[in-house]
Amino acid sequence: MGDRVATVDGHQALVNRVAELRSLLNRASYEYYVLDAPTMEDAVYDQLYRELQELEAQHPQLITPDSPTQRVGDRPSSQFNSVRHNIPLYSLENAFNTEELESWQGRWQRIVPTNDFEYVVELKIDGSALALTYEHGVLVRGATRGDGTTGEDITPNVRTIRSIPLRLVGDRIPAIVEVRGEAFLPLDVFEQINQEREANGEPLFANPRNAAAGTLRQLDSRIVAKRRLDFFAYTLYIRAGDGNGESAQQLDLGIEMNAVEESVEHPRTAILTPKSQWDALEALQHFGFRVNPNRQLCPSMAELKAFADHWEQARTTLPYLTDGLVVKLNSLALQEELGFTQKFPRWAIALKFPAEEAPTVVEHISVNVGRTGAVTPVAELKPVSLAGTTVSRATLHNADFVAQLDVRVGDTVIIHKAGEIIPEVVKVLTELRPEHTHPFHMPTHCPECAQPLVKPLDEAVTRCVNEFCPAIVRGALIHWASRQAMDINGLGEKWVTQFVERGLLHSVADIYDLTAEQLQTIDRMGKKSAENLIGAIAQSKQQPWSRVLYGLGIRHVGNVNAQVLTQAFPSVEQLAEADIDAIAAVYGIGPEIAQSVYQWFRVSAHQALIQRLQAAGLQLAGETPAASTTSTPLSGKTVVITGTLPTLKRDEAAALIQQAGGKVTSSVSKKTDYVLVGEEAGSKLDKAIALGITQLSEAALLNLLSNI
Ligand code: IVH
Fold first, then answer.
1. Residue 106 pLDDT exceeds 60
2. Which of 166, 237, 539, 681 would you label with 116, given CA atoms 20 to 30 Å apart?
3. Is 342 within 8 Å of 350 (Cβ atoms)?
4. Rounded CA gap, 703 and 701, in Å?
5. Given 3-state DSSP classes, what are the helix, strand and coil percentages for the chain, each rounded to the nearest 5?
6. Is the pLDDT of residue 16 over 60?
7. ∠ CA(527), CA(532), CA(537), 5° rounding?
8. C-alpha of residue 236 to centroid of ligand 1, in Å
9. What is the chain's Cα-based Rg?
């Protein structure tokens, strides 16, 4: 299609169209992600995006850094380069109550005695600070705070954050603009990431801040693109001039907004010459950034206190974490006059919300063994009320964490809870430590099965590797019966625990040998419940092969990987006999997953398990049905594939579509929703065009799927 434009209307028409598409798409994305007020239909967006993508693929010289196609992430880099910040990223002094705020006010007023001022009060977002540089309106660099003077260049990762404009909005954009703000993970995304990590047996992120910081430092920006980071801007530095031959890197930007104002060659509107932090926030908004709407101008301490009281309560209703307010003097002239101490601006301070932290005493340290055999030390605490709940246990994560903190039984510790997160011990008050305490050591043997524990040198996790450990068996059974796996109604943690204790269940295959008579010997299990459970077990035999594979709980095989694998290996024999390379060759399956699957099938106990499941009549082969749990852009859609795709084989593309809930059929009809078009597409494409069916390129398909 792009070529037709090029030949008929010439090169200029093509260039114009690409620019137009870029601008339409950037505008739509801004309305969606920043303003939260979408105006463009998703399908229209997808279509325009596809058109741009195709034109860019045919004419790579037309790709610009602000093209929306540049947000999907790049190949992994081996490391990040250091960047020096022209203006250091200062941190803030903390105030914990209004007396401390008043004392701060007294201090700055002694330096500049005035009563003619107002404060801008903003929420303090609990994320990770970013410094963004725009040259002639285009994002050229995104860097972490680092130590405040030197950070890391993480531009490819920053590009994936949808609420960060790749090009500033407006026509009179200063030559160089530097923007600072906070990147953060919304709470629901944070929870989702941790659920996935748990399913994959990976260590959990302790809180959204760590998760955001960890994500930003990911070397593979394609992973960052999937994590849905968000960004609120709060600081704006502007440098006028034509910017020719100079880059932000070489310029001493200074904080001299006045210099901009006086620049005769570059007359600016009020928006571009902010005199106050309030105007700067508005200017940031005009440039296309998301600016936190929960801000207020406070002419006196009284308003400030009222605002603080409100947010101390209301913060729990926000979909992201805030740990306080930032109080800034509004006038930039006043800010400049006050300047900085060694560490902090004199013109701003953080008012921290009362911490969701409390001291308590460690009564015992127990050790929990999870489904994957991961052994987690847990502090059993004297119950304490914290952020609305009573807390009596807190995770100590792993051996390294305990050693670092040196938590001991008898210690008084500070526990911390933020948002929905599991409480955590953050500090030991060693000055309160009683005599005769002992450092905690991880047990050398499993507390449940007494077998030796294993700690790989390169992992923080200690594991029990005994397949028959009751804790692992329990975990495996609960996982097997869970909704996303075999979905055995009624077989939850309570019964599993009892059945294992009574010696009725040692492995998931035993489930299929249970009888109603046996079950009725268990306390509080009546005839009816026993029969219902046996019925649910029998029904679960119809669950498809992909769920069986997921239910086996092989490390790194979550339900998506299980579907991908069962598409590629439609029977257990094929998967069990495949070598590592064959498994790793499956699209979407990395070497680590392949290794894990391969090893699993090499264990003779696992081979025996498969045989028993087969004998019990479970589905260990067969088609993988479309995923229906989450809705995706392809849920319920019918797709026809035609032509040769650039990188995917046809069956790989089909597997991806089915996995996303779509259906692949072979002939085009009115019921077809999309045609996936490759090179040398034939009559199917002609028919699709005649019927007005939306075309997808491979890149467009992958892009649609990457947002799931
Ligand atoms: S102003 C010199 N405003 O809090 C100005 N910071 O403890 C310093 N933060 O490193 C920053 N929300 O990462 C400012 N509305 C806000 C903020 C904010 C979060 C973070 C920022 C900074 C840290 C200071």
1. yes
2. 237
3. no
4. 5
5. 40, 20, 40
6. yes
7. 125
8. 13
9. 30
CA of 92 to the centre of ligand 1 (A): 7
Percent of the chain exceeding pLDDT 70 equals: 90
Count other C-beta atoms under 10 Å from residue 527's C-beta.
11
Q: Angle at Cα 123 formed by Cα 117 and Cα 124, nearest 5°?
A: 105
Nearest C-alpha neighbor of 308 from the set 122, 579, 517, 504: 122
| Length reported for the chain | 708
Assess whether 455 carries a catalytic annotation: no
What is the distance between the terminal CA atoms of the chain, rounded to a whole angstrom? 28
CA-proximal residue: ligand 1, atom 22 (nearest): 91
Question: Which residues, at least 6 apart from 188, have a Cβ–Cβ distance to it below 8 Å?
Answer: 319
Of 239-248, 487-496, 516-525, 569-578, the one with minimum mean pLDDT is: 239-248
Query: How far, in Å, is the centroid of ligand 1 from the Cα of 223?
Result: 26
Query: How far apart are the CA of 182 and the centre of ligand 1, in A?
Result: 7
DSSP 8-state secondary structure symbol assigned to residue 484: T
CA distance 144 to 153: 7
Residue whose token pair is 């009809």: 669
Angle at 308 between CA 306 and CA 310, to 5 degrees: 70
Tokens of 189: 């995304």
Question: What is the rounded distance in angstroms from the CA atom of residue 576 to the CA atom of residue 598?
Answer: 7
- pLDDT level of residue 258 (50, 70, 90 thresholds): very low
Is residue 169 classed as helix, strand or coil in its secondary structure? coil
pLDDT surpasses 50 at 349? yes
Ligand 1 atom with least separation from CA of 122: 15
Burial class (CB in 10 A: 0-12, 13-18, 19+), 275: middle
Q: How far apart are CA 408 and CA 300, in angstroms?
A: 47
DSSP string computed for 217-279: T-S-HHHHHHT--EEEEEEEEEE-S--TT--TTTS--TT-HHHHHH-SSS---GGGS-SBHHH
Average pLDDT, integer, range 559-578: 92
Residues with Cβ within 8 Å of residue 478, at least 6 apart in sequence? 371, 492, 493, 496
Nearest Cα neighbor of 54 from 706, 707, 677 is: 677
What lines the ligand 1 site, CB under 6 Å?
Answer: 90-92, 122, 124-125, 129, 145, 182, 234, 326, 345, 348, 350
Residue 646 has pLDDT above 90, yes or no: no
- 326, 336, 341, 351: which to mutate for ligand 1, most atoms within 8 A of CB? 326
Q: DSSP string of 530-543?
A: HHHHHHHHHHHTTS
* H/E stretch holding 696: strand 694-696
Question: What pLDDT is stored for residue 631 in this prediction?
Answer: 64
Active-site position among 124, 328, 417, 684: 124
Residue 571, number of CB atoms within 10 A of its CB? 14
What single-letter amino acid sits at 399? A
Both structure tokens of 75? 């190949």
Do residues 326 and 122 make contact, with C-beta atoms less than 8 angstroms apart?
yes
Q: Could you tell which of 92, 230, 311, 330 is best to mutate to test the pocket of ligand 1, judged by most ligand atoms within 8 Å of the CB?
A: 92
Identity of residue 102: E
Q: Quote the ligand 1 centre to 207 CA distance (angstroms).
A: 18
The residue whose CA is least distant from atom 23 of ligand 1 is 91
Choosing from 87, 124, 130, 318 the residue with most ligand 1 atoms within 8 A of its CB, the one to mutate for a pocket test is 124
Across the beta sheet with 674-677, what order do the strands follow? Answer: 663-665, 638-642, 674-677, 694-696
64 token code pair: 């610009």
Q: Which residue has the tokens 């002419």?
A: 299
Could you tell me the two tokens for 584?
């790793």
690 SS3 class:
helix
369: left (phi over 0), alpha (psi -120 to 50) or beta: beta
Of 697 and 433, which is predicted with more confidence? 433
